UniProtKB/TrEMBL annotation:
It comes from Bacteroides sedimenti. This is MmcQ/YjbR family DNA-binding protein. InterPro entries: YjbR, YjbR-like_sf, YjbR/MT2646/Rv2570-like.
Amino acid sequence: MDIESARDYYLQKKGVTEDFPFDETTLVIRVMNKMFALIDLESSDKITLKCDPDYAIELREQYPGIEGAYHFNKKYWNQVPFDGTVSDSLIKQLIDHSYEEVIKKFTRKLRAEYDALP
């Protein structure tokens, strides 16, 4: 998988937006303004994704390419490479997991706004 394929995949999800809040090369992907993924466009070789803490450890043990995310709380964030060491289907599953991890923490009000989206 590459950045464009990942981008095509996550942009199909409800409530997803992109922005550059940190600098001009760090693309942040959000659902209802809550970050669930990040891609450094300068290196463009990995995606950073939110993850359940226990699942994050399991993934790091099972896949040598998956590691704790640089500059993030490694308990909740993993870096997943686009170099072929992780299958496209697993990357999609991890994007879905990250998206769901953020949605399940929505406040009641934010969840209602999300549910009201087409």
